[in-house]
Amino acid sequence: MQLEHCLSPSIMLSKKFLNVSSSYPHSGGSELVLHDHPIISTTDNLERSSPLKKITRGMTNQSDTDNFPDSKDSPGDVQRSKLSPVLDGVSELRHSFDGSAADRYLLSQSSQPQSAATAPSAMFPYPSQHGPAHPAFSIGSPSRYMAHHPVITNGAYNSLLSNSSPQGYPAAGYPYPQQYGHSYQGAPFYQFSSTQPGLVPGKAQVYLCNRPLWLKFHRHQTEMIITKQGRRMFPFLSFNISGLDPTAHYNIFVDVILADPNHWRFQGGKWVPCGKADTNVQGKSFQLTRFLDTYLGNRVYMHPDSPNTGAHWMRQEISFGKLKLTNNKGASNNNGQMVVLQSLHKYQPRLHVVEVNEDGTEDTSQPGRVQTFTFPETQFIAVTAYQNTDITQLKIDHNPFAKGFRDNYDTIYTGCDMDRLTPSPNDSPRSQIVPGARYAMAGSFLQDQFVSNYAKARFHPGAGAGPGPGTDRSVPHTYLGEEAEGLAAERSPLPPGAAEDAKPKDLSDSSWIETPSSIKSIDSSDSGIYEQAKRRRISPADTPVSESSSPLKSEVLAQRDCEKTCAKDIGGYYGFYSHS
DNA sequence: AATCTCGCACGATCAGAAGCTTAA
DNA sequence: TTAAGCTTCTGATCGTGCGAGATT
């Protein structure tokens, strides 16, 4: 077995670690021997030995003290120090692979998480999209560690390589019977109450807050710049979580894994796979390489607020705006703030929610304390310079820090800012106010607030209490422009009475009114001037923008249409995945 | 040729200083 | 008059894409 050849004895866990089942429907008879799905996971030994636990402890970054909220929810400095001791992540992790450690935490099979049939929280991939489906998995399970995504099977990647969309995106087949939909317009997986079928009590649900924006980029194959000193992601990862135990403590972090085994190249206006990905672990399977890269490398970013209570995490958005991407392998000392990637490789960020004890130790006696969430639309290719000009333009259009590259910004956007709805990379609420917002119409403002607070109230029942711990990252999730696009993709009926419930809350919630992030004039959403400004690289005089030929234009139009119905469709605001 | 690095200009953010208003 | 609170201004720092040059 390939894996056995490449694994060092210390890493070479018992066979329990390597699930040799071939029962997984999409394994396609490949050589893949590792699986991630709970139904296949027969042991949790690695979870029990918990490399994650060891990793995460040493990962609280330097901004911890700055960002840590001073509230009852906060464990406080003393506890923090206990919760995040400085560890040698690599050595400890390696140690954690020791079989003895694994045995020590071996669970009986009966204690394993739900089967696939009872796992409604399994992520629903997008068919016909850019990449393979990535069912969420728990990194807490050894087998799940090792084979994060079933589509990594040869079959899936063959599909990935052979079936390319016109944009050059692979249209991989989807191994899961649960289909997320057949396009971006596919219905999301909604769970509005715990009484609804399919919701697993006690399991977290995660919503990708700025999903519409991600979708915009994803459409063109998102690219992320990596630099030696580190470059922030844009769009950045921002989530809302519900379903946590408000009193329990959690670590929340993001890791970035290889999304596929290919090296990518931008040719003929599209991304095409070009040979095998560079791997540091020669001779090892892709799955193992990715696993090692992820957990032995520097691809994990702990949220500065970690650890904290479920109430804290559910109170407002969990933003990873300060996560930086670098290609500098020597950046490992950067307090966990940098994620080291390789250029021209495709990556998939994942969110991990790990329940920890109040004293910061991980309770290994209970299963299901590690939950992982994957959003396919957040896949990206790491680059040192942008290849696709559409991506460049989207970045310029949406990233406040790139305003200097927008043409005629003052004339175009002031007062009719349709698309200046992107949150600042920073967490400051202040940064959420976009120039156009200052002149926005009250109606739009209220509508926006309505949407925001509906979502807020809907998903965070306790969120109306005003600024609390962690207000430094109390980012209003009101990217209505992008949201509207997402709304079209995620139609969902407004629960009866939601509007009545939400509106008074809007007006009373000072923290939200204070920091409107996306107020705009809907009426001005489709100005030709705006579109020309977006097309910075194309001279408006020389190259009139054709509505039919401009995907960006289509997006704007789609947004406008969506906005008309957003009040009804606010339920579709978030991308939603849940898995444990 | 493809990719990467570095310096640049520009805008955003942040914190501190300065100025103004108000109440004791 | 003085202190407290608030707003505005200012400069340092950071983040951004661009483009020339270096590297592979």
Automatic annotation (TrEMBL):
Transmembrane segments: none
PROSITE patterns named among the record's database cross-references: TBOX_1, TBOX_2, TBOX_3
Coarse class of the protein's main subcellular location: nucleus
Feature: compositional bias, Polar residues: 58-68
Localization: Nucleus
Database matches in Gene3D superfamilies: Transcription factor, T-box
A biological-process GO annotation: positive regulation of DNA-templated transcription
Protein's UniProt keywords contain DNA-binding: yes
Domain T-box: 208-407
Superkingdom of the organism of origin: Eukaryota
Molecular function as annotated in GO: chromatin DNA binding; DNA-binding transcription factor activity, RNA polymerase II-specific; RNA polymerase II cis-regulatory region sequence-specific DNA binding
Keywords of the record: DNA-binding, Nucleus, Transcription, Transcription regulation
Single GO cellular component term: chromatin
Pfam family, one: T-box_assoc
Segments for region (Disordered): 43-83, 108-127, 487-554
Amino acid composition bias (Low complexity), ranges on this chain: 108-122, 517-527
Name of the protein described by the UniProt record: T-box brain protein 1
Organism for this UniProt entry: Fukomys damarensis (Damaraland mole rat)
